[in-house]
Predict the structure.
Amino acid sequence: MFFIWFGICFVCYMSRTVFNVLNYKKNPLAQNKKIVTSIFIVMFVLWFSWFQMCFLEPIKMNIPDWIRYIGLSLFLMGVFLFIFSHTKLKGFEDTGELITGGIYSKIRNPMYLGFIIWIVGFPIFTKSLITLVSSTIWISHIIYWKILEERELEEKYKEYREYKKKTWF
């Protein structure tokens, strides 16, 4: 079952990446409401399948509990960072302004960073070796999404390059 969930997770990551490329290239498909809604569903399936991988892991790591709890702390910190940064976006979606306040004054992409932290932390907590190793695949996709998004923001906002110099990630 693990490898079935791995395959589903991989297909979902690829689907999201294709969507991001289409969006960056201003392809009309990326603006289609049904496709955008489908991507939200894909992301739900992606995270569900990824959690299944953690729980159905065929190769468990032999690590001490204190390392597991560091992994749990990383996971919780990543989830908090994602949720906190997402709530800071509320109300700004349609203003057309670059958001540079709050957490965004320090980190350009706190939601992506939150994803990355939890992708590393939870497999450590669940002692899931293959899932932890596969994090390199998932993180590479997230970094690619970040790169595309930043290119788009550089085109949209003159001040974005200066903002990048003052912030991390």
Q: What stands out?
A: The chain has a mean pLDDT of 95.
